[in-house]
Design a protein that fits this description.
This protein is mainly beta. The chain has one domain (5-12, 24-370): Pectate Lyase C-like (3 Solenoid). 2% of the residues lie in helices and 41% in strands. The protein is built from two helices and 34 strands. Strand 3 (48-50) and strand 4 form a beta hairpin. 55% of the residues are buried.
Length: 377
Amino acid sequence: MRRLLVLLSTLTAGVLFALPAAPGSAGTGGHAAITITSDAGFTSCGCVTSGKGTAASPFVIGPWTISAPSGGTGGWSVKIDNSKGLITDSFNIVGISSTYNDTNPSDPTIWLDGVKTATTISGTSAHPTAGNGLGMAIELDNSSNISIDGVSYNKGNGTGVFINNSSNVSVNNSKFKATCDICTPHRGDGIYAVGSNNLQIGNGSDCPKSGPCNDLTYDDGFGIYLQDTHDVIINHATADANDTGGYVLDGSNTYNVTLENSSAQGDGNICFTVNGQKMNSGYDTDLQGGLHLINGAHDNTITNDTFGGGTSLDVASGGNTDSSGTAVYYDACVSGNVPFTLSPREPSMGAGNSFSSICYADTNIPVSVLGPSTCKS
């Protein structure tokens, strides 16, 4: 069976952030992990290659190759920490190549905390912001006005982008891939947003017009999970071969989300052998499938999407159940559904969710609400 593949698109060269010319040879070699906690840090870090720190001419951090994380064996490549409000300068992060390994899924490679000024995290074909075998790719805490454009992280051990209590964030023309074999909840999602708002995922003006915009390949976590997060556009996404699920809209504060021109199918997990014992990939959950709206998520728009095939529900309100109403998850090692006993079934969606032009097969949402399938025979 295929692994979870959320294709929001392949990285497109030529549409990425324009890199300002660096003075001399600055930014072309290695640099230690970067930590900035005040405006003075932009001068003392030895990491700024151009710019004046103004909105019109932001400092540019990079391009740099970082061969060791902040803690030696774990930590970050770049952390901009404005939690104490000592950073007022404007900056962008460009071309940070992280060449070390980090197996801790909690370690962000690039970490912004409390950053409010307009900031771009980007890469170019010549100077990519990229890495393989790292923990989390990007973490945004209590930040706003952040653009992620043209970055690439492969074989990750954690979530691609964790958006925590942040707003006005866009993700475009980027690739995130995780391969953890045994994840815990929200340690291996493509994009996990909690308590956030005004997100644009694959909706940038520089996105390809003939196909998806971002490429997220996640083996064990969810493709995109929004928890108590509102005012979101997800455009041109594809989630396939789900060990868990494609898209989850979770919580009464999850509303005004538009999921459009997208697709997913939930094929369940994979049975593999560890020390002679069979184990399922992913973690046990009753949210396997294409799309789940749970815990009162309301007033969202799902349009022009395809959720087809697989072993789980294509579109669901609440968690998966069998015909008797028992919460279940698909167990590849027995090739069928088994009772989900780790916690109660996830509660149903709220009111006001709108569905139109949806292709699906299996659902627990009445046709009067979901509308007839556009492809069901």
